[in-house]
Write a structure and sequence with these properties.
The complex is a heterodimer.
Chain A lengths: L9 E5 L4 E6 L7 E7 L6 E7 L4 E3 L3 E6 L4 E6 L8 E9 L2 E4 L3 E6 L1
Parallel strand pairs in A: 1-10
Antiparallel strand pairs in A: 2-7, 3-4, 3-8, 5-6, 6-7, 8-9, 8-10
Chain B lengths: L4 E3 L2 E4 L5 E6 L6 E7 L6 E7 L2 E5 L6 E5 L5 E5 L8 E8 L9 E2 L3 E5 L1
Parallel strand pairs in B: 2-11
Antiparallel strand pairs in B: 1-3, 3-8, 4-5, 4-9, 5-6, 7-8, 9-10, 9-11
The chains are: A mainly beta, B mainly beta.
Amino acid sequence: GESVGLHLPTLSVQEGDNSIINCAYSNSASDYFIWYKQESGKGPQFIIDIRSNMDKRQGQRVTVLLNKTVKHLSLQIAATQPGDSAVYFCAEHYGQNFVFGPGTRLSVLP
Amino acid sequence: DAGVTQSPTHLIKTRGQQVTLRCSPISGHKSVSWYQQVLGQGPQFIFQYYEKEERGRGNFPDRFSARQFPNYSSELNVNALLLGDSALYLCASSLFHRANQPQHFGDGTRLSIL
């Protein structure tokens, strides 16, 4: 489940397995969504985006799914690698700015 | 190609002081946004600037201000610093200010208030 503050939800997966990171967004009027990856000491790195008129979009090893009915976004990472270990944020565009979720820490086990 | 660059990378200030943080967007990007990221949380929106005008403002006090220059670079100013202002300050740039534009972030300025 989701938590806030210093206790980030953590997902641990075996190297080579698929990862699914979930995000519940806040506003039904949000029209654009982005997934970011943030490594320690770095800024958020753009992974993939999706517009509200779509329900699925694929990139290289990543897929984003959007379910507007329940305001849910997910990021699927295929064949997870050690370099995928990071904190992942979803961001929704609402009004004039982006609103970020609390983040999920992905830990890849050897 | 150079990404978003921010300076300085780290800064230590004391309560009551003032600070100025700088950001250069990706070449060709005209919109700059500022975010505050407290440890363990997602970034929080502070400002967006486009064509030197403020286009959006988050829920931050008037001690926070910003501006954008003709070359699209930007500065964030924070006055009367408080301990709670300790955070990573992130700058993001995008081509335009409208929706459906991916924002690309710099690596931030780590501000510590003593």
